[in-house]
From TrEMBL:
This is Roadblock/LC7 domain-containing protein. It comes from the Bacteria. Residues 13-103 form the Roadblock/LAMTOR2 domain. It comes from Actinoallomurus vinaceus. SUPFAM superfamilies: Roadblock/LC7 domain. SMART domains: Robl_LC7 (SM00960). The lineage of its organism: Bacteria, Bacillati, Actinomycetota, Actinomycetes, Streptosporangiales.
Amino acid sequence: MSAVSPNQSSDLAWLLKGLAQEVPVIRGSVLLSADGMMKAAHGLDRANSEYLAALASGLFSMARSASTKFDGSADVRQVVAELGSSQLFISWAGFNSVLAVLAEGNADPAVVGYEMARLIKAVRPFLDTAARPPAASGDRSR
């Protein structure tokens, strides 16, 4: 399993920029760890990128819970939300990683989904996020 080191994370923004160039209806995108930590972003300011990362993490987690309950596995390929004037796409992007894309309301969901899947498939090993080490347990009763 390959994982992105901290110095590689910022370099991943060029992948998201390339996705937006390929699909001009994309307003912004964020690559995040499954627990909501932003790894790379394009098209959004920092505050909105972090907000989208946290939101995508929560929605993806709820979809995994639904899949476990109703489908017998935790596999989720994509979550899509149609908003008033936008569309939100959230996809599994590799070990412990998620890709969230915010597109214009008139975007063709098939095109956005296809291009997201194509990007993920092409660079999947570089999108993986290492698991966090367990927190040190200490006796806090003293």
